[in-house]
């Protein structure tokens, strides 16, 4: 199996407010983002990144054993072959390399893999 490398752009912080701390070497990439914009936030659920958890292919949705087992690709479980998380969040404000966003359920310290603008025409397919 071919492997590839992801480089964290920063980390999620939860200190009364939720914000993204972008590492200084990626600061220029923030140009064009503004307060009120919606973005797609791609994270690496590092606490779910173990060899055992990566082998898990079925889970009980929402971690509730009352829910029947389902394939991880049909769930939002953080336990999956590649523990990638995708959120759609609103930028509350930007202060330097900190992007304050609406609340998410990621842990403090979660690595940021990428940020992309939310584009209604692309992210909300017609006919759904």
Automatic annotation (TrEMBL):
Q: Which residues form the TsaA-like domain?
A: 6-127
Keyword set, alphabetical order? S-adenosyl-L-methionine
Which Pfam families does this entry report, sorted A to Z?
TrmO_N
User: By its UniProt entry, which CDD domains does this protein fall under?
Assistant: UPF0066 (cd09281)
What InterPro entries does the database record attribute to this sequence?
TrmO-like_N, UPF0066_cons_site, YaeB-like, YaeB-like_sf, YaeB_N_sf
Q: Which domain of life is it from?
A: Archaea
NCBIfam families of this UniProt entry? tRNA_TsaA
The UniProt family comment states: Belongs to the tRNA methyltransferase O family.
The name on file for this protein is TsaA-like domain-containing protein
Organism of origin is Thermococcus litoralis (strain ATCC 51850 / DSM 5473 / JCM 8560 / NS-C)
Tell me the lineage of the source organism: Archaea, Methanobacteriati, Methanobacteriota, Thermococci, Thermococcales
């Amino acid at each position: 199996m071919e492997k590839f490398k992801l480089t964290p752009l920063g980390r999620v912080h939860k200190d009364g407010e939720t914000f993204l701390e972008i590492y200084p070497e990626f600061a220029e990439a923030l140009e064009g983002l503004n307060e009120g914009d919606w973005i797609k936030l791609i994270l690496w659920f590092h606490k779910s990144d173990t060899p055992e958890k990566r082998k898990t292919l079925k889970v009980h949705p929402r971690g509730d054993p009352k829910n029947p087992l389902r394939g991880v690709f049909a769930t939002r479980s953080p336990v999956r072959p590649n523990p990638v998380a995708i959120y759609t969040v609103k930028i509350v404000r930007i202060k330097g390399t900190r992007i304050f966003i609406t609340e998410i359920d990621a842990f403090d310290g979660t690595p940021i893999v990428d940020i992309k603008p939310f584009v209604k025409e692309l992210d909300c397919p017609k006919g759904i």
